[in-house]
Amino acid sequence: MGSESEVITHTTADNGGKVVIQKIPGNLKWGEITLKRGVTDDMAIWDWRKMIEDGKVISARASGTVTMYNQANEAVAEWTFDNSWPVKVTGPTMNASTNDIAVEELTIAHEGMRRVGV
């Protein structure tokens, strides 16, 4: 989770003809958020993704919060994000020869996020 600015290199010359290279911030980009969980009977993320598949993008957009907890179950960090939609939902890899936990993965695109206090 985070943000990044493109770097634009601007080359000019000063009054003496010396080349001066400036680096200035360009377009702001927000990284996608990827969440993973063990498989449950809750269909909410699949239903949310289905809205995008059905072309209901405006209805599917939502804002949200990701909260990180420590081992004592105390909130230690929080991020809010705006105008998001599910880019991808992935179900578990089926492999009967392992004892791995079945995991679902949700990738979310958004139009801005910020770290907030807890």
Helix and strand arrangement:
Layout: E1 3-13, E2 19-30, E3 33-38, H1 44-53, H2 57-60, E4 62-69, E5 75-90, E6 103-109, E7 113-116
Antiparallel strand pairs: 1-2, 3-6, 4-5, 5-6, 5-7
Brief write-up:
The protein is mainly β. Helix content is 12%, strand content 54%.
Question: Could you characterize the architecture of this molecule?
Answer:
The chain has helices at 44-53, 57-60; strands at 3-13, 19-30, 33-38, 62-69, 75-90, 103-109, 113-116. With 118 residues, the chain is mainly β. The protein folds into 2 domains: 1-30, no CATH class; 32-116, Pnp Oxidase, Chain A (Roll), CATH 2.30.110. Strands 3, 4, 5, 6 and 7 form a 5-stranded antiparallel β-sheet that branches. Strand 4 and strand 5 form a beta hairpin. The model has no long low-confidence stretch (mean pLDDT 93).
Number of strands: 7
The Cα radius of gyration reads 21 Å
| Average pLDDT for all residues | 93
The separation of the N and C termini measures 17 Å
β content, as a range? Answer: over 45%
Helix content: 10-25%
Structural class: mainly beta
H/E element order: EEEHHEEEE
CATH topology of the largest domain: Pnp Oxidase, Chain A
Please report the first level of CATH classification, the CATH class of the largest domain: Mainly Beta
Question: So what's the oligomer here?
Answer: single chain
CATH architectural category of the largest domain:
Roll
User: So what's the overall shape?
Assistant: elongated
The profile of the biggest β sheet is: 5 strands, antiparallel
Contiguous helical run count: 2
pLDDT under 50 segments (min length 5)?
none
CATH homolog superfamily of the largest domain:
Hcp1-like
The domain tally reads 2
